[in-house]
Automatic annotation (TrEMBL):
Family matches, as SUPFAM superfamilies: DNA breaking-rejoining enzymes (SSF56349)
Gene3D superfamilies: 1.10.150.130, Intergrase catalytic core (1.10.443.10)
The protein's name: Integrase family protein
A UniProt-annotated Pfam family: Phage_integrase
Species: Caballeronia temeraria
GO cellular component entries: cytoplasm
Length: 409
C-alpha cells in the first residue's frame, strides 16, 4: 500500500504521523517563526524551517546506512510528537517539553496513532507504518536523548537554533556496567548449536538454509561481527599472509561501525566452515581476492547462477530474522525437552544477533584470551573509555584466538 502524505488541516491535532519524506507540516508549525530560532549571527545552513534543518543534519550521515536510519528515526519521532501532540514547531520546544517527551517515549499513547499493530515493522511507504513498535526501554530512551542532544547541538552550531533545550538536562556520569548481561552462557549457547545441528535437510531448500544458518552463526560468534557488518562486507576480504615463523594465517578485513577497519582472525575453524558453505554453493573452497560474493547469500544463489557475485547481500532485517528464528526454535526445543528450563528459553526468545557478539567477547574472556586481543577482535576503541591504546602483536592475537576461541560444532 502507498502512503498518502499528511495534509495539513485544522486544528493541528488532526495531523497524523508520517515519514519525513512524505510529511507535510502546516506553515504555522513548520518552525519558520519558531521561538527558539536564532535571531542574531549568520546561519551556516540554508534551511528556513524545521524539516529542512533536520534534513540538513541527516545529510551528514547518508554514507553510513545504520547511523543514518537511527538518527532519522529519533529526529522523526521528536518532530512528529512536537507537531502532532504538542501542536508547536520543533524549534519552539522548551526544556520542559523535552522532559514530557522523555515520558512519552516510555509509553507512546494513543497506541493507535503511534504504535504499529502487533509491534510489526512496516515499510515506510505502507499506510500501516508508525513511528514506534512499542514502549522504549530505559536504555533506548537514553540513546534517543543522546542522539537528539547531538542534533540540537549541531543546529545551534549551524546558527539555526538559539539554544539547545536538552543541554539543561542533568548529565549523569556514565559508569561501566559491572558485567554484560545480554549474552548466552555456554550451556545456552550449546542449545543453539544443537538446534542448528538438527535442522532438517531433506529438501534442497532445507539443506541450503541449514548450511547458511551454520555459516552465519559461525561468522557472528567466531568473528564477533555486528549484523550490519555481515551484510556490508564480501568474501574477497579474506586474505592469507605468512607470519614470522612461516605459518600461513587467514584474516578477514572488516569495514565496520563508523567506517573503521579492523582485522579479524580467520581461524582454521572459520576457514573450514567457510569452505563447507562455499562448496555447498558450488564455489571453490577458498575465495579469491577479486570476487565480490556477499559473506552470506540469499536462498537460491549457487555457482550455476552466473550472477552469484552480483547478488544483493541479505539486508540487516533479513539476517536479523534468520537469527531470531533460530533462537525461537532453540527455545521451543528446550521447553519440549526440559519443562524446568523456562528461564533459559525466555532468555533465548529475547536474544538478538548482537547477543552473539557479546557472547563471543564473554567466552573469549572466560577462556582467558588477553582482553587487549578481545578488544582488537571486536573492534573496540579501547579497554575503557579512558585507557590509552595498547599495541598487540597481530600474529600472537591470531594464535591465541585460534587456540582459545572455538565454536566446536
Amino acid at each position: 500500500m502507498t502512503r498518502t502524505p499528511s495534509v495539513p488541516t485544522s486544528p493541528p491535532y488532526s495531523l497524523q504521523p508520517a515519514p519525513l519524506e512524505t510529511l507535510v507540516v502546516p506553515a504555522r508549525l513548520d518552525g519558520s517563526a519558531g521561538l527558539n530560532r536564532a535571531v542574531t549571527g549568520r546561519a551556516q545552513i540554508a534551511a528556513d524551517n524545521d524539516l529542512d534543518a533536520i534534513r540538513a543534519w541527516l545529510s551528514r550521515f547518508v554514507e553510513t546506512k545504520a547511523t543514518f536510519e537511527n538518527y532519522r528515526k529519533e529526529a522523526e519521532r521528536l518532530l512528529l510528537w512536537s507537531v502532532v501532540e504538542m501542536g508547536k514547531p520543533l524549534s519552539s520546544l522548551t526544556h520542559e517539553d523535552c522532559l514530557r517527551y522523555q515520558q512519552f517515549l516510555a509509553n507512546p499513547q494513543p497506541a493507535s496513532t503511534w504504535v504499529a499493530g502487533g509491534g510489526r515493522k512496516h515499510p515506510r511507504s505502507d499506510a500501516r507504518w508508525r513511528p514506534f513498535y512499542g514502549p522504549l526501554s530505559p536504555s533506548s530512551q537514553r540513546q534517543a536523548a543522546v542522539i537528539l542532544n547531538v542534533m540540537f547541538s549541531w543546529l545551534v552550531q549551524a546558527g539555526y537554533l538559539a539554544g539547545n533545550p536538552l543541554s539543561l538536562s542533568r548529565q549523569r556520569a556514565r559508569h561501566t556496567a559491572p558485567r554484560i548481561t545480554r549474552y548466552l552462557e555456554p550451556s545456552v549457547w550449546q542449545e543453539v548449536k544443537d538446534f542448528i545441528a538438527t535442522m532438517p535437510k531433506e529438501t534442497d531448500r532445507e539443506k541450503a538454509h541449514a548450511y547458511r544458518v551454520r555459516w552465519l552463526f559461525t561468522l557472528l560468534y567466531l568473528g564477533g561481527l555486528r549484523i550490519a557488518e555481515v551484510g556490508a562486507n564480501t568474501m574477497s576480504q579474506f586474505f592469507v599472509r605468512r607470519d614470522a615463523d612461516g605459518t600461513l594465517r587467514w584474516w578477514l578485513t572488516i569495514h565496520g561501525k563508523g567506517d573503521k577497519q579492523r582485522l579479524v582472525p580467520a581461524t582454521r575453524e572459520m576457514m573450514m566452515e567457510l569452505s563447507r558453505y562455499r562448496q555447498h554453493l558450488g564455489l571453490s573452497a577458498l575465495p579469491s581476492p577479486n570476487e565480490n560474493t556477499p559473506l552470506v547469500l540469499p536462498m537460491g544463489a549457487t555457482a550455476s547462477n552466473e550472477r552469484i557475485e552480483t547478488c544483493a547481500p541479505l539486508t540487516r532485517a533479513a539476517l536479523h530474522a534468520i537469527v531470531k528464528e533460530v533462537f525461537a526454535g532453540a527455545a521451543s526445543r528446550l521447553r519440549e525437552r526440559d519443562d524446568t528450563a523456562s528461564a533459559q528459553a525466555e532468555l533465548l526468545e529475547k536474544a538478538s544477533a548482537h547477543w552473539l557478539r557479546h557472547t563471543a567477547g564473554s567466552h573469549m574472556a572466560d577462556q582467558q584470551v588477553d582482553l587487549r586481543m578481545v578488544r582488537d577482535n571486536l573492534g573496540h576503541a579501547s579497554l575503557t573509555t579512558t585507557s590509552i591504546y595498547l599495541h598487540v602483536d597481530d600474529d600472537r592475537r591470531h594464535q591465541e584466538t585460534e587456540e582459545k576461541h572455538r565454536v566446536d560444532w
